[in-house]
Amino acid sequence: MVRHKTWLLVATALLMMTGTGSGGADGAWQKVGEDARSGVSGLAYEGRTEDGSGVRALAVHDNKRSGQRRLSRITHREGSDEVTALTWDGPEPLDLEALEAIPGIPGEYLAVTGRGIVFRLKVTGSTATVVDYTPLPAIGEGDDFESLALIGQDGNLAVLWADRGAGPDRPATLYAAPLTFAAWGQPLFGAVTRRPYRAAYPLGDGVRHISDISVTGSGRILVGSASDAGDGGPFDSAVSDAGRVTVSAAGRVRVTLAASPRVLATFPQYKVEAVECLPDSADALLGTDDENLGGYVRTVTFCGT
């Protein structure tokens, strides 16, 4: 992979101002995909390995042609990764970009496409079955989605998602709504709120201000942001502390975004499209979709309270 000294100088200067580390000091990047069809567009925690030494996560791929892989299972340990394809049973989505486990319903997930179609999935063994699908509410003109997060608080569910934004003239739009399910499984969305969001890093014409979202147990919103200059790169990305979300006992969702997002770590030469805080842990599992260069995963510790 070509290294760009100018980008590293910019990242170093930013880190001196913010006090963050470039990429953190946790796990190294480990390759899980060889080409544009196997990059990681989204991750959802599935469980720990039997011996407790690793984690299993489901990964979505943004493939568009019939028969191409939509979903994989990654078993991640420091120093090794095992990737197995899952069978997709049901209508095939176009361009899956994010995936999230449904709190309180083991084995079920929501996945979203770039154009905002939400698929509810039930995963059993090596098969993912489509339970239902529906469009996101309040889709704006030109919206392009890469993120999804589900929150369970006080017995209620809420969902966050975002138009990724594009460059300095189009910030991301972060959406939030209460979430319930119809008896037959369809996701149902309550009143939608929206907030604009601009990434503190990376900057420039190719920036996607929100490439993924994860929410910690205490309600901190962590946002991935990425810069994409084309299928061969160069890429750049960061994860930032963007604000907080709460869900009241009455089901009201409140999002408070930071006036100046705090950059937690930068990842020059990688396009982070998946940020997944692991339950009962300070660790996040990150995934990249580096287009023709494939995909990578690693852990970084920044999900603590």
In short:
This protein is mostly beta strands and 305 residues long.
Please give the structural blueprint.
Layout: H1 5-18, E1 21-22, E2 30-33, E3 42-48, E4 55-60, E5 71-77, E6 80-85, E7 87-89, E8 96-101, E9 108-113, E10 117-124, E11 127-135, E12 145-153, E13 156-163, E14 172-181, E15 187-189, E16 193-197, E17 207-215, E18 220-228, E19 235-247, E20 253-266, E21 272-277, E22 283-288, E23 295-301
Parallel strand pairs: 1-20, 7-11
Antiparallel strand pairs: 2-23, 3-4, 4-5, 5-6, 8-9, 9-10, 10-11, 12-13, 13-14, 14-15, 14-16, 17-18, 18-19, 19-20, 21-22, 22-23
Q: Span from first to last CA?
A: 35 Å
Number of strands: 23
Estimate percent helicity. Answer: under 10%
Count of DSSP-assigned helices: 1
Q: Tell me the radius of gyration.
A: 18 Å
Low-confidence stretches: 1-25
Overall morphology: globular
Helix and strand succession? HEEEEEEEEEEEEEEEEEEEEEEE
Structural class by secondary-structure content: mainly beta
The residue-averaged pLDDT reads 91
Describe the structure.
By secondary structure, the protein is mainly β. A 5-stranded mixed beta sheet has the order 1-20-19-18-17, with helices on one face. The protein has a 5-stranded mixed beta sheet with strand order 7-11-10-9-8, with no helix packed on it. It has 1 helix and 23 strands. The protein is globular. It has one helix at residues 5-18; strands at 21-22, 30-33, 42-48, 55-60, 71-77, 80-85, 87-89, 96-101, 108-113, 117-124, 127-135, 145-153, 156-163, 172-181, 187-189, 193-197, 207-215, 220-228, 235-247, 253-266, 272-277, 283-288, 295-301. A hairpin with a 6-residue loop joins strand 22 (283-288) and strand 23. The model is unreliable at 1-25 (pLDDT under 50).
